[in-house]
């Protein structure tokens, strides 16, 4: 007898970067457990993630995290109906650890193994924070590895409106923070420091702002900030770090907000969702909320725990609809949704 979809238990595993995570979900949107093992203290002294070290730490952490997740959920492995795992994009060595663990578990349990897309997971985190959310909607994905505008036309249908040509916004945050002597991860440090500064103190550039261009570029902004800092040091001036942080963040946010609402209008959507690690930035969330209210656009964003180190269990509404792909092909060839 087949289980009701609302009762299906999914074990989801995530190891795409520097955090090992596992979650158990019942149905599409009920989280029974979400366990995260962070590597921030390990990578902090390097000022960023070292891929080889991240992979080795995943090997150490993956099974204890899964064990704790199962215990916290109050279920046993034999209760699991399917296993889902992030297959990419991400750090290859790190992904391999999660995929290997998921394949082994699915094989031993005799249950389906489903490969899921990292980028889609960021977007679908919003279904856990906003249970009534349904496609179609526009998604602004902003993280350490991605900056993109995605028109979510259905659970399985995505159109890439535009993405970064060079650095992701989150990567720029971390690099500028490192130059300013702020500890890793830099994004939250910049966000906190920006609250003490004047966002209009320094006129940093904003790239690709012409109407109808939905692509992003942050390498020029990053260079401009670095040049400003070096110039001030050469002049013997004391750096006003709050003003630098506020002005840099202002330039990033204005580009993101401007393009996001242009895309909403272009696609004829009435809802905008924010996704990715940089969704935890209070300045970005505040500006998007403010602009959405002015324009009469619905706005959704995930809770902070679902912005960054969560297991990519947020794809479950689509997995339960039968659109996840069993890993009968090489992982690199699997895709959970159709992109155009």
3D structure, described in words:
- The chain is an alpha/beta fold.
- It has two domains: 5-123 and 307-339, Nucleotidyltransferase, domain 5 (2-Layer Sandwich), CATH 3.30.420; 136-301, ATPase, nucleotide binding domain (Nucleotidyltransferase, domain 5, 2-Layer Sandwich).
- 42% of the residues lie in helices and 20% in strands.
- The protein is built from eleven helices and twelve strands.
- Helix 5 (169-179) packs parallel to helix 7.
Name of the CATH architecture of the largest domain = 2-Layer Sandwich
Strand order of the largest sheet: 3-2-1-4-5-11
The SSE string, one letter per element, is EEEHHEHEHEEEHHHHEHEHHEE
State the CATH superfamily name of the largest domain.
Answer: ATPase, nucleotide binding domain
CATH class of the largest domain: Alpha Beta
> What characteristic shape results from the CA principal axes?
globular
Structural domain tally: 2
* CATH topology (fold) name of the largest domain: Nucleotidyltransferase, domain 5
For the biggest sheet, the summary is: 6 strands, mixed
Provide mean pLDDT, rounded. Answer: 89
How far is the N terminus from the C terminus?
A: 38 Å
Number of helices: 11
